[in-house]
Design goal:
about 290 residues; Rossmann fold; seven-stranded mixed sheet; five-stranded parallel sheet; 10 helices; 12 strands; about 20% strand
Length: about 290
């Protein structure tokens, strides 16, 4: 029986990138729906649930993507709420690659630093990738400084993560313009992740040099000027000034492997849910196989 992936995208034109990755992951038939609204989701999901018998539903899956992350998260939630036993299909959320990118970033950093007990500074933490990096790090038992331009936005991000079940004691909201708190975070950080929008510098080379404890710096911006001055987008575990550096393209190698493997895993059963934490598991399996 053919593997069918139903792509629900928040944008008018469904992502070509996500479509190509799905095909490379072994999907036989891709059904794409763009500009999907919450009120349309139930009928689309019913079409996936009822056209095949329960024993064959592992060959059907749903992928939710698009650039509007809040909208996509709502759609992802409705997809899950619509299904019930035994009429279930697996479902994955990866808006603009935020989940797979965050998982790849943290896993690469974890190659060099024991995450349990480490301290991380996440720059532009209120964006889609930054939120997921912060959530994963806290769940890995890191102390996480959640940084944004304003304290209100940082605190809002922390409150949201706590509402999702993240341990509040591991999250500290700070504003990047609050010099005292920002310097405190820089001086305590073992890990720095820059998760800002394209072309926005978040950390100068001088600031990075002053962060003496930092063992891994990760910049997820691939558009000059980069988020962290002194790194390059192709850095893939480059040793520089006593630390290990990763750029966006260096992280992208593992991100692509996780994305493809996560899509393929949807068809292992009819009840898988792929969010950022599940992609961490997929990524760990990939790294373990590479070591062997």
């Amino acid at each position: 029986m053919k593997r069918i992936l139903i792509q629900l995208d928040t944008d008018p034109q469904p992502s070509v990138f996500d479509a190509v990755v799905a095909i490379d992951a072994g999907v036989d038939q891709l059904l794409q729906y763009g500009n999907v609204k919450p009120e349309q989701v139930r009928d689309l999901v019913h079409g996936a649930m009822y056209t095949r018998g329960p024993r064959d539903l592992q060959n059907t899956a749903v992928f939710v993507g698009g650039s509007n992350v809040a909208h996509a998260e709502q759609i992802f939630s409705i997809v899950q709420e619509t299904m019930f036993d035994p009429f279930r299909v697996s479902v994955m959320l990866d808006c603009n690659g935020a989940n797979s990118t965050a998982a790849a970033a943290v896993l690469n950093a974890g190659r060099h630093v024991e995450l349990d007990g480490a301290t991380a500074l996440v720059l532009a933490a209120t964006g889609p990738v930054g939120q997921r990096v912060s959530r994963i790090l806290a769940n890995e038992k890191c102390k996480v400084y959640v940084s944004s331009r304003t304290l209100d936005r940082s605190q809002e991000c922390v409150d949201r993560l706590v509402s999702e079940g993240v341990n509040e004691s591991r999250l500290i909201a700070i504003a990047s313009h609050d010099q005292a708190w920002f310097e405190k975070a820089l001086h305590e950080a073992d890990l720095i992740f820059a998760c800002g929008a394209a072309g926005i510098r978040l950390l100068s080379e001088e600031q990075l040099h002053s962060a003496k404890r930092v063992r891994v710096a990760v910049d997820l911006n691939a558009v000059p000027p980069l988020g962290i001055d002194g790194l390059t987008m192709t850095d893939a575990g480059v040793e520089r000034n006593g630390r290990i550096d990763y750029g966006a393209l260096g992280i992208g190698r593992l991100k692509m492997k996780i994305h493809k493997a996560a899509v393929a895993a949807l068809f292992e059963s009819n009840e898988k849910t792929m969010d950022s934490q599940e992609m961490m598991t997929v990524g760990r399996d990939i790294l373990a196989r590479e070591v062997r």
